[in-house]
Amino acid sequence: MAKSFEAAESAPDVRVGRVRWVIVALLFAATAINYVDRQMIGLLKPTLQDEFGWSETTYADIVFYFQLAYAVGYIVFGNVIDRIGARFGYAVAFVIWTGAHMLHGAVSSVAGFAAVRALLGIGESGNFPAGIKAVTEWFPKKERAFATGLFNAGANVGAIVTPLVVPALTLAYGWRAAFVITGAVSLIWLVAWLALYRRPRESTRVSAAELAYIESDPADPAAKVPWARLLGRKETWAFAIGKFLTDPVWWMFLFWLPDFLVKRHGLDLKTFGPPLVVIYVVSDIGSIVGGWFSSRLIHRGWSINAARKTTMLICALCVTPVFFAQWVDSLWVAVAIISLATAAHQAWSANLYTLPSDMFPRKAVGSVIGIGGTAGALGGMLFSLYIGQVLERVGSYQLIFIVAGAVYLIALAIIHLLSPRLEQAQVADA
């Protein structure tokens, strides 16, 4: 095994094999679909508000129920995926969220939207636990941040596709048909996933050299780690608090950015597509570069701790200019500021998502991701209620952007305090 790995590590990637990158492509596609389904209500917010007369707090409540279900689903799916594996766990999540997405076309009341958004949240909560689990199975630690950044970039592709496709579908067929059509087309992914995904040792496509490269890290404990033990580890809380503080900022951009462009810069369903596309294209670059940068530092001899935290510090500093987005009169200057913030968030997220696989054995990664995702969704719920109240009472995004610009530095300080060296968490039996 060691000899095989030495040959694999020194050989070009074409000799090692590339099956693991096919897996990343599947994860990328699923994440893109996930974000099309997730973002559509934000894109259609002005249309739905006009049709149903929603207030700002009504819309915030609908988002709240999505995030509540997402929080519950995240912690459940983290555990389920650790038990049944990424292949079937991802498939179950996909079926739930796609069905819920299509059901949006059948509801009219606030209660109906809250119900289908909650079901969507339960299904979509399985995306990242399954994706990180798959990356953990298919990549050694030194490549995981880059692989995570690549598949996480699917979020931005989904956010790019949505303003390009959904307005056209809505104007041609109505918003109800837009939900049904986008959901039906995405089922192609489910067929491809079930046909192609296997664990590395179960796959007939993986060469001996690539398998040796994938398994080059020291062996993890084989036993399942109890949740009580994970909850008692400060490393778990380093990840969870990081998610609690910073995930809500991404939710804010996802669900309220079209509304900001409408209210602050006078855009509408026909005109806010290009600014959104620019923002999420830049975000896509941030996701890939953020994962690549910390992986590159590790390849150059940096410790995992130094590489991850240096990258995250740069990201945190790049978000802070969003303080000024509300004050800028020029649309494209505002787009540039927000693009920098969203790109920095995605680069941050690529590294934050990698921390559980840096600190925990593979058997525990899905559960830790679930705990952190739940924390992030809880933070998002609170931030959504805050946003609704601020917009209802103040009518400006300034107080919202001030919070968004400050939380990353706070989160990084807490992560460093709880896990100063990103060492392996002691979760094995004595």
Give a topology summary.
Blueprint: H1 2-10, H2 13-16, H3 19-43, H4 45-52, H5 56-84, H6 86-103, H7 110-124, H8 127-138, H9 141-173, H10 175-196, H11 208-214, H12 227-231, H13 234-265, H14 273-299, H15 304-319, H16 331-352, H17 355-359, H18 362-393, H19 398-418
Helix pairs in contact: 1-11, 3-4, 3-6, 3-8, 3-9, 3-10, 3-13, 5-6, 5-7, 5-18, 6-7, 6-8, 6-10, 8-9, 8-18, 9-10, 9-14, 9-16, 13-16, 13-18, 13-19, 14-15, 14-16, 15-16, 15-19
Q: Would you kindly provide a written description of the structure presented here, covering whatever features stand out?
A:
Helix 5 (56-84) runs antiparallel to helix 18, helix 9 (141-173) packs across helix 16 and helix 15 (304-319) packs antiparallel against helix 19. This protein has helices at residues 2-10, 13-16, 19-43, 45-52, 56-84, 86-103, 110-124, 127-138, 141-173, 175-196, 208-214, 227-231, 234-265, 273-299, 304-319, 331-352, 355-359, 362-393, 398-418. It starts with a helix and ends in a 12-residue tail after the last helix. It is mainly α and 430 residues long. The chain has a single domain, classed as MFS general substrate transporter like domains (Growth Hormone, Chain: A), CATH 1.20.1250.20.
